[in-house]
Model the fold of this input.
Amino acid sequence: MSKPVPYRAGTIAIVGRPNVGKSTLLNHLVGQKISITSRKPQTTRQRILGIKTEADAQYIFVDTPGFQTRHASALTKLMNQSVTVAVSDVDAIVHVIEAGHWDAGDELVAKLLSGKIPVVLALNKIDHVKDKAKVGALIQERAAQFPYAAMVPISAQKGIQLKALLGELRKLLPEQPAIYGEDELTDRSERFMAAEFIREKLFRLLGEELPYAVSVVIEKFEQEGRLRRIFAAVIVDKPNQKGIVLGEGGEKMKRIATEARLDLEKLYGGKVYLEVFVKVKSGWADDERVLRSLGYE
Ligand SMILES: Nc1nc2c(ncn2[C@@H]2O[C@H](COP(=O)(O)OP(=O)(O)OP(=O)(O)O)[C@@H](O)[C@H]2O)c(=O)[nH]1
Ligand SMILES: [Mg+2]
Done:
């Protein structure tokens, strides 16, 4: 008779330099959009859990901000700190890099990994790589540098080889019962998700620099049956940025709010009434006290 498969559950930190596809990976693994993504680096600012429960295992993924050296501010300091904390207290780590590419940013992340917690190297965006030999060469090079538990080329966006990645991760989780309920997808509140989804639209719809000068606070969140009524403030750094966020005749803000509302309705499974204002708070990203009041940990 074959032995029953033991149940495994544990926490896995997803780390890497900015923009390698960590949040895209978390969303695909969990099967639901939880963590915001954009083509701009430093989209994720705070740690967020994404929980995947299967018949034989529960994977508790921790998405983290991209570990970085640029834009030194109190905000980036807190972002880097959250990565350092995340990698110290988990059962396994996925280090995400771009397939066929290794640079100083990746090296900096590798230095955070002590060797005590097993690391799986995920070589992401393979759909984007023309020269597959480069991926093989990098795998050999990395294997000589660090005792990875596994190395898996993947595409987070196209869902390529994610089963193989999960298989490797399962082996690294302790045998224990599930920690979260079957229907739980994240540890974050609906309020937090609302602020994040609005921030995603700001990242996607504003120019190159402005997204880094904005933050979002939920001022009121009410629920009446299946309707959520949300009042949010977009915090900008300088008075002239207010007009840019609003756009001509408020058009830009209208689009930001509409796109955020549609995403939130999908996430909550109910109607959303969303009102978004813009407020000026100078130097918010440089002041740790202001950051804490805005909800940054
Ligand atoms: N071609 C391709 N693009 C991808 C893949 N995975 C992610 N991307 C893109 O890479 C960009 C960054 O993705 P994110 O998931 O926001 O990256 P991140 O690592 O979370 O970034 P930060 O939170 O800023 O550190 C987005 O434009 C994604 O669509 C992939 O497998 N293939
Ligand atoms: Mg991210």
Observations:
- The domain at 190-293 is CATH 3.30.300.20 (GMP Synthetase; Chain A, domain 3).
- Residues 22-23, 35, 43-44 surround magnesium ion (ligand 2) (CB under 6 Å).
